[in-house]
Specification:
Layout: E1 8-12, H1 19-27, E2 33-38, H2 44-50, E3 55-59, H3 65-72, E4 77-80, H4 84-105, E5 110-115, H5 119-122, H6 132-151, E6 156-161, E7 179-181, E8 184-189, E9 196-198, H7 201-213, H8 215-218, E10 222-224, E11 228-230, H9 232-243, E12 247-251, H10 254-258, H11 284-296, H12 304-310, H13 318-331, H14 337-340, H15 343-346, H16 354-357
Parallel strand pairs: 1-2, 1-4, 2-3, 4-5, 5-6, 6-10, 8-12
Antiparallel strand pairs: 7-8, 9-11
This protein binds NADP nicotinamide-adenine-dinucleotide phosphate.
Length: about 375
């Protein structure tokens, strides 16, 4: 019987918001070691990874076959999160395919693909729901599972479908950054009565680790995760309950949303290295209009029963997440949640996304 158990994992996207907790969970007990790819090996995030002890950094870009080969070679596992906000949708498609193909060739035993929902397909191919950073991954998730039908003995593969990080709702420069209006924490987003299946980054670490720990069950699986579908009235109510300070959700039409804090970014390409003159390149406005419609109209579902089985101690509600985050923030000296979302603190905190930290600059 072929075995898909692994001990050395090549990680693409390891210095990112998603990669940090994934690597943390992989190496915590030294069961796995990690080789993480980074264009920026001197960054504070790369240093934080090295400080974990059993992580090495390979300098380079995923948009280079020789680097991909060097990264996979000598490893037996791979966690691949290709940054579509760098590449744009077209190049993301190409490099996702090449990553998978080179991983097979280089003898990887188990491959985990960092995925997002193929929302356009899930909506019945209705372009109101077209978000390039979702579809760009979701198509490739399906493609990988299809290849895996033929290759599953040689290299197992699982698709790990996440969603908007819950952390983004309390962070600067995200699609759901809060403001404080007359002392009321306020989320102004075009969500209607819909709900966002937010994910908790720490739980992503647990789930990714579970995939590598259970490769025979995980082989061929699309593990789609979330805390819960978060209605923003519920987010605001939970915030009030946890912090004792007022909060509100204000449903916002798309025109008002794109004339708000994101106005300056609306016409830029969603991927910072995508060609603005290429007709296939989606702008922020087009991309995130589709994104909000996906949540507003309930296009995406989750099997919460399965998640309870796989991760019995998972964070299962937005209130639980906020309570935990409030506690963690106090312990780490960041202040309580109410303090952290005040603009003078929010915009000073280290950015959640590396892309924000790097001001959307960097090579492909
Ligand atoms: N924001 C969300 O809520 C969310 C949720 C789920 C999935 N995603 C998806 O996750 C991806 C981004 O990852 P993230 O959320 O962790 O964002 P992030 O914090 O901005 O991190 C981006 C990561 O991608 C790496 N990277 C970018 N371009 C690279 C290149 N050419 N070669 C090698 N590495 C490269 C960066 O590494 P270096 O800078 O060190 O090279 C970094 O590790 C996007 O495709 C996004 O759609 C985002």
């Amino acid at each position: 019987m072929p075995t898909h158990s692994t001990s050395k994992i090549f990680v693409i996207g390891g210095t990112g918001a998603q990669g940090l907790p994934v690597i943390g969970a992989l190496v915590a007990d030294k069961k796995y070691s990690v080789r993480a790819l980074s264009r920026d090996p001197a960054s504070r995030r790369a240093n934080a990874l090295r400080a974990l002890g059993n992580v090495s950094i390979l300098e380079g870009t995923f948009a280079d076959e020789a680097i991909l080969r060097e990264g996979f070679r000598g490893c037996d596992g791979a966690y691949v999160n290709i940054d579509g906000f760098n590449t744009g949708e077209k190049a993301e498609t190409y490099w996702a395919i090449r990553s998978y193909e080179i991983a097979v060739e280089e003898g990887i035993k188990f491959f985990v693909y960092g995925n997002l929902d193929y929302a356009l397909k899930k909506s019945g191919y209705d372009s109101r729901f077209r978000a390039g950073h979702y579809d760009g991954k979701g198509r490739m998730g399906e493609w990988i599972l299809f290849q895996n039908q033929a290759n599953k003995d040689r290299m197992g593969a699982a698709v790990f479908t996440t969603g908007p990080y819950m952390e983004m709702a309390i962070s600067a420069m995200t699609p759901m950054t809060p403001s404080v209006e007359d002392g009321v924490v306020t989320w102004r987003v075009p969500l209607g009565n819909g709900a966002v299946p937010h994910v908790a980054l720490d739980d992503c670490g647990y789930y990714a680790r579970w995939l590598f720990d259970n490769p025979e069950r995980a082989n061929g699986m699309n593990l789609e995760v979330a805390i819960e579908h978060v209605e923003y009235q519920k987010l605001a109510a939970a915030f009030e309950k946890v912090t004792g300070h007022p909060a509100q959700y204000i449903d916002t039409d798309l025109d008002a949303y794109w004339n708000g804090p994101l106005k300056a970014a609306a016409d830029l390409p969603a991927g910072y290295n995508a060609d603005p003159n290429d007709k296939s390149t989606m702008s922020f406005r087009d991309n995130f209009t589709g994104f909000w419609n996906v949540w507003k109209y309930g296009v995406v579902q989750r099997d919460y029963g399965l998640l309870d089985e796989i991760h019995p101690n998972r964070i299962g509600s937005v209130e639980q997440w906020l309570r935990r985050e409030d506690q963690l923030g106090r312990e780490l000296g960041k202040g309580n949640l109410w303090e952290r979302v005040q603009p003078e603190n929010l915009y000073k905190a280290p950015p959640l996304l590396k892309l924000t930290e790097d001001k959307r600059k960097g090579t492909l």
